[in-house]
Design goal:
Number of domains: 1
Mean pLDDT: 90
Strand order of the largest sheet: 2-9-8-4-5-7
Radius of gyration: 18 Å
Strand content: 25-35%
Structural class: alpha+beta
CATH architecture: Alpha-Beta Complex
Shape: globular
Distance between the termini: 46 Å
Order of helices and strands: HEEEEEEEEHE
CATH superfamily: PEBP-like
Oligomer: single chain
Low-confidence stretches: 7-25
Number of helices: 2
CATH topology: Phosphatidylethanolamine-binding Protein
Largest sheet: 6 strands, mixed
């Protein structure tokens, strides 16, 4: 059992480590979107046509990748119990020099070398939200991974478990941004 005093020492050590990192210019990788705030509602144009949208891929920007980053990978997943980790977007081999994916980049303006894998609809690229009516707001979690490899060699239909397995031992850092959508 951890005593209160020991817990205070642990907290002080963590705060000290963060202060040292900050003083040394240490930066934490961050992922953001200009389309909606973290934990905010995803605007209609980013959802599937079946839900009344245009299926435009969400703009994403990132900062602070750790030293040694050689590429990035991206996942957009709906972990809602009804959706059961429905994959909306998987991207690999995003170059380490990239700092963003523009609005509508999927299938048209991806960074050189980036590969869009199949989503749960069985098509490559972005597939926006389309939760079943009456199931409440679903979380759509965008996770960007900074990797220590230049390239992942994955088949288009690898799926989320294969994607996650391919990342094992290669992730230097990750950052998340979550949007909600329901109908």
């Amino acid at each position: 059992m951890v005593t209160r005093e020991r817990l205070l020492v642990i907290v002080a050590l963590i705060i000290g480590m963060l202060a040292i990192s900050s003083a040394q210019g240490g930066e934490v990788m961050q992922l953001t979107s200009s389309a909606f705030p973290d934990e905010g509602k995803i605007p209609q144009k980013y959802v599937m046509p079946g839900a009344g949208g245009q299926n435009v891929s969400v703009p994403l920007t990132w900062t602070g990748p750790p030293a040694g980053t050689r590429s990035f990978a991206l996942a957009m997943v709906d972990p809602h119990p009804v959706a059961r980790n429905w994959v909306h977007w998987l991207v690999i081999n995003i170059p380490a020099t990239a700092t963003a994916l523009e609005e509508g980049a999927s299938g048209r303006k991806m960074p050189p070398g980036a590969v869009e894998l199949n989503n749960s609809w069985g098509r490559p690229g972005y597939g926006g939200p389309q939760p079943p009516p009456g199931t409440g707001d679903h979380p759509y979690v965008f996770t960007l991974y900074a990797l220590n490899v230049d390239k992942l060699d994955l088949k288009p239909n690898v799926g989320l478990s294969g994607f996650n397995k391919a990342l094992e031992g290669k992730v230097l850092s990750s950052a998340k941004w979550t949007g909600y959508y329901g109908r």
